[in-house]
Amino acid sequence: MTLTIERPVTAASRVDRRAPWEEPPTTVGQAAKGLTLGGVLAVVLVPLWIIVVTSLSTPAAINRAGGLVIWPEGLTLEPYREMLSDPTVRTALLVSLGITLVGTVVSMVVSVLCAYGLSRPRSLGHRVILITLIVTMFLSGGLIPTFLVVTDLGGYGQWWSLILPSAVSVFNILVLRSFYSNTSSELIDAARMDGAGEWRILWSIVLPTSRAVTAVIALFYAVGYWNAFFNVMLYLPTDSQKWPLQYVLLTFVNRGNGMPGSVNSGFGTGQVQTAPLSLQMAVVVLTLVPLLIVYPFMQKHFRTGVLTGAIKG
Amino acid sequence: MTNPRLSWRVRLRRDRALLLMVVPAVVLLVVFNYAPLFGLVTAFQEYDPLVGVWHSDWVGLDQFRALFGDPLFWQALGNTLYLSFVQLVLFFPIPIALALLLNSVLSERLRNFIQSIVYLPHFFSWVLAITIFQQMLGGAGVLNQFLRTHDIGTWDIMTNPSTFALLVTSQAVWKEAGWSIIVFLAALAAINTDLYEAAAADGAGRFRRMWHITLPGLRGVIMLMLVLRLGNALSVGFEQFLIQRDAVGHDAADVLDTFSFYYGITTNNYSYGAAAGLFKSVISLVLIWGANRLAHAFGEDGLYRR
Q: CA-CA distance, A212 to A300, in Å (whole number)?
């Protein structure tokens, strides 16, 4: 694959000023641009605003608005208190955090080691191994054979079936590898002269010099685990004690299958009693919060992380 | 140390730490990617979970014969192609336009702010994205709330099979268009600004410059993205359809992936589902190969070089 884009000549390196030869903007052009971009922002932000405001509203305010609340009046934290006292939501939150944490650690350890192991030039067999990895990006057994392998290994109903089958992303390994290959070889040779082994070099030189990309890849893995719901549907469909937050969101909010807390209201079973809207929206916000916490710190590294997906076969 | 003629024994000794590091990833891929590849033989069997792959009966192409005689399968295939086409036509140009627009914003801070907002939905799960759509456009959503209070009647977009293609496309645009601009922005930033200056000196206006410099500069990336899209024509998105299938009905919402899931796993008819999956994989490979040939014919690199 030849996505040959060099290390981003980021827009940041340009000057904040119009080039002397450029025409001054027309008023109509400016207005159209402003409207379009404003519209784009609104399409993302307005739904989030409505959901957050509704999640903070009293039942009375929701009644007055006839549903979702657009202009807040009389905000309260009561829905959040209520939601977090619900056993289903609490379990799901712990499950989600646990899977995300363990999964990310597993994925990162495996990926970083593999990426470094393949990043040293002229090492034995690295080309063959690399091809072995890349082939999996194009060929896969598909849904059913993968399901059969996991269940044959006893993964049905087991936590590990949510983590191990999706633990390795070859794409992420290739991104890491291309960064590790760029670590100054003088630095590495110097360390080797001082008697450092490969593990030592990885830990004390390569990792510290590529902190940004490592963090971005960790975020990608973490988001993947946090967002996953299909593996749950495949491997843990019946045990609601093992459902992560996304599954609770799907069942109780999207499909409106009764109150959280009435644990017995499983998939597709009777419409028991739908949770108050504010409580449902609180669950939505809850699935968003961890993302919104790390997002601002990561955002500036995205471009670097994504674009170095330049794969040199 | 870098002498390439070292014998492999010496190199093995030298690189054993590196090789050890690669082992966990390779083991995981062998178990969860390569083993399922061999598991595809179940498509030629009448797979029985009780006896496993080794002892199930071979039935040759029977599963495929059943598949090709199944109207539901043709419907899923038709839906897949139709949805893919709609997404290609309506989705594809948007990130390019958005990237051009964003690139023309002069203030760096404003540009970064807009970027960080439009990237955001990419990190939402499909469950979350569809829940948000449900709350905005669904039967009890904001739109219908507005329509009701103004006595215009209601309009449930979320459960309407005839507009389902537009719905899923707008969901995909909402969730992924912002993120897809990254590659286009990078390609735009890589265009030599001297070209613009020279063109301006020769009297080219802003639209001529866009036509003769910017768009040719983007050509390679656009071609690459197009090839990727075509290669993935049979993968219109799985979770998105799985979640909405019940609300819209399988007539409109079944695609090849959901077909494989519903008629393979939920009915324990594993071989049937595997056959559908294998059909999809083979056609996809052909599509990728064909799209690449096309890219090469236009003198572009595509996914791999000639």
A: 9
